[in-house]
């Protein structure tokens, strides 16, 4: 296993002090970089481990924060914060840009070779960065089939990969259709993977607190979605010595 280095980074965003997790690959040179956005509950060890796994593959990875260092295990508290956030593209972009600035400022990160990967709310933020015209090499999302303001998807300058469970009641078929129609109309290079039998947040291991109805882990599809994301990065943001 490749030796990596990790550290906590703090930065301001959304009137909060965010606490992110930065993972660096071995070596001294600049490497391609990846933003990793968490589910609506907030940054947890799940996203930290994914950032570490990306660093092991040779990427500089920043798992960014949503809630000022808090993890919102209470579904009602999570919804009370995330629903207004998801309805406000400018707030989402502000959170994304703040994390992106941290990643770009890291000396090991190549500021011209960055991708964004996100889950749920973190995936919606990744998409909003694309709709804002940020120069990303790829956008990968799971459980984040959000649509943007009319016409803004035309600003997306990179391939978009999206994964969703076929039985996800939160990302219902109508929402899936609206997302793909938006991407197609904007001329985006897009792909949608539908994982049969999977619920919302199927990629996330079981948690020790209540969850919303329609949420459930699917171990096989979780592994498949991760492999699909790694393949997206290998295609669009290859690690080269």
Automatic annotation (TrEMBL):
InterPro entries, per database record: AB_hydrolase_fold (IPR029058), Dienelactn_hydro (IPR002925), FrsA_esterase (IPR050261)
Show the Pfam families listed in the entry. DLH
Protein's UniProt keywords contain Amino-acid biosynthesis? no
Q: Does the keyword Hydrolase apply?
A: yes
MF terms from GO for this chain are: hydrolase activity
User: Which residue ranges does the record assign to the Dienelactone hydrolase domain?
Assistant: 20-235
Parts of the chain that traverse the membrane: none
What UniProt keywords are attached to this protein's entry? Hydrolase
**Similarity section:** Belongs to the AB hydrolase superfamily.
Protein name per UniProt: Dienelactone hydrolase family protein
């Amino acid at each position: 296993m490749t030796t990596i280095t990790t550290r906590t980074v703090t930065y301001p965003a959304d009137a909060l002090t965010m606490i992110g997790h930065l993972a660096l690959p071995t070596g001294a040179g600049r490497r391609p970089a990846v933003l990793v956005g968490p589910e609506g509950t907030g940054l947890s060890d799940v996203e930290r481990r994914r950032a570490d796994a990306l660093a092991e593959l040779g990427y500089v990875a920043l798992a960014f924060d949503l809630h000022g260092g808090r993890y919102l295990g209470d579904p009602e508290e999570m919804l009370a914060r995330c629903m207004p956030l998801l309805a406000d593209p400018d707030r989402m972009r502000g959170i994304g840009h703040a994390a992106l600035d941290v990643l770009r400022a890291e000396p090991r990160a190549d500021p011209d070779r960055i991708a964004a990967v996100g889950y749920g709310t973190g995936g919606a933020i990744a998409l909003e960065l694309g709709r804002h015209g940020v120069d990303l090499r790829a956008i990968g999302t799971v459980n984040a089939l959000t649509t943007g303001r009319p016409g803004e998807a035309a600003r997306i300058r990179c391939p978009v990969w999206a994964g969703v469970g076929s039985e996800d009641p939160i990302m219902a078929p109508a929402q899936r259709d609206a997302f793909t129609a938006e991407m197609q109309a904007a001329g985006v290079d897009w792909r949608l993977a539908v994982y049969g039998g999977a619920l919302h947040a199927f990629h996330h291991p079981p948690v020790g607190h209540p969850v919303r109805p329609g949420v459930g882990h699917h171990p096989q599809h979780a592994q498949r979605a991760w492999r699909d994301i790694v393949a997206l990065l290998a295609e669009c943001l290859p690690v080269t010595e």
